[in-house]
Amino acid sequence: MKKIIEFMEKYFVPIAGKIGSQRHLVAIRDGFVSIMPLIFVGSLAVLFNNLPIPGWANFMKSIFGEKWNTFGGTLWNGTFAVMSLLVVFTISNSLAKSYNKDGLIAGIVSFGSLIMLYAGSSKDWALPFAYLGAQGLFVSLFVSLVATEIFVRLMNNKKLVIKMPEGVPPAVGRSFAALIPSFVTLIIFGLIKILLDAVGVPNIHEFIFNIIQKPLIGLAGTLGAALLVVFLVHLLWFFGLHGTNILLPITSALFLPLMESNIKAFQAGMNPQNIVTSSFFDTFVYMGGAGTSICLLITIFIVSKNQENKAKAKLGIAPAAFNINEPVLFGMPLVLNPIYCIPFILTPLVLTIVSYAAIAIGLVPKTIAIVHWTMPPLISGFLATGSIRGVLLQIINIAIGIVIYFPFVVISEKHLNELSSLDNSKSANL
Questions:
Q1: Which of 150, 211, 226, 428 is deepest in the core (most CB within 10 A)?
Q2: Rounded Cα–Cα distance for residues 176 and 191 (Å)
Q3: How does DSSP assign 79-141, residue by residue?
């Protein structure tokens, strides 16, 4: 085990660290994080409109009338349904700021560039609503990164930056400074649109979705893909790297469309089709944070006799209830801890298989709402599935996690006691 850890520290950790700090991936990650409150509101609005409680719809109609669900639909239209429009701005803003450039104007330019690629995709020149949400994410990611890179490089050319006199208000000065770079960037994307039309690709969103995004999403929805993501997330975390954030650009692009598909199906009164979604991981696998660490803390409360461990568990249980487990990861610690390496990675993998199987055979409904990652377990199980069976699966998963962690907590206790005895022996000899 020691040799494996040394090998990973030498060859794997530096590479993973560079990937995790890569400018463009960080921008994508931060861009998605910025819109999470809106996505959360939109998904809960759908759950509100379709709450699986007998008589819910009739009850609401009796109070608010036939159009009672217009409110939830309106919230959806302004949040989840326009995700691609939101992230093109937030990603561009984050990337431009990493270069110490004007993130606001860069975001506006990227937004305009994306809108030009939408134009002409329907007969009435209206924006195609189907590709404003998760189905349009790949094009939005491309536009946000490319448009910002062009804008930033043009801004670095002092000959293209218009300088205004000192008395001019700062906002006006910023606008004129970015005038030529913005103009050139927009022209480039206008030419791209003309070129696409000329080669017979009038709808780049549909083309990209069918050629690239759809096959990738199909693979992402499999158990194998889910296990791979969970394994990589926890392998990175074991070495002290934020695995969730490092992989967020990839997982958001792949699993959010699957979540959106489930929400739309649920909205239409149909059965959702996707088991693996963004909510699947947050609800059934990452309970208490990485490593399903709430199971470790409960196990310590059950079997531990070591006062130091109990004190750490008491400090860590409150944040872990909201899926925040940095105090446990670095305080216990779990990071680079050879004793807890196996359960830290194994527990989430086992829970992924159990959860997938439970949903696949129909014991638990598929996820139909995005629940914020800080939502406590048991509450999140109901909100994500709209069913008490989601809560029961979480309870079963926690029990499984406790069983997996149990022998390793015992081993850790024994190891700590041996170290304590050795220290006491050394002190007595002195």
A1: 226
A2: 23
A3: TGGGHHHHHHHHHHHHHHHHTTS-HHHHHHHHHHHHHHHHTTSSTT----GGGTSGGGHHHHH
Q: How far apart are CA 300 and CA 314, in angstroms?
A: 10
User: Which amino acid makes up residue 333?
Assistant: P
* 109 and 207 share one domain: yes
pLDDT (tens digit, 9 = 90+) per residue, 2-34?
565 566 556 655 665 666 677 887 888 788 778
Q: Residue holding tokens 């860069």?
A: 106
Res 428 pLDDT > 60: no
How many Å apart are CA 375 and CA 288, to the nearest integer? 10
CA dihedral 367→373→378→382, nearest 10 degrees, is -30
Q: C-alpha dihedral over 38, 369, 253, 132, to 10 degrees?
A: -60
| Placement of tokens 């860590």 in the chain | 316
End-to-end CA distance of the chain: 33
- pLDDT tens per residue, range 28-65: 878 877 887 887 777 677 767 766 566 777 888 888 88
Residue count of the chain, please give it.
430
Other CB atoms within 10 Å distance of the CB of residue 53: 9
Q: Which residues form the domain of 84?
A: 79-211
Please tell me whether residues 287 and 403 are part of one structural domain. Answer: yes
* 315 and 171 within one domain: no
Could you tell me if 136 and 260 lie in one domain?
A: no
- pLDDT digit string, tens, across residues 110-136: 999 999 988 554 455 677 777 888 778
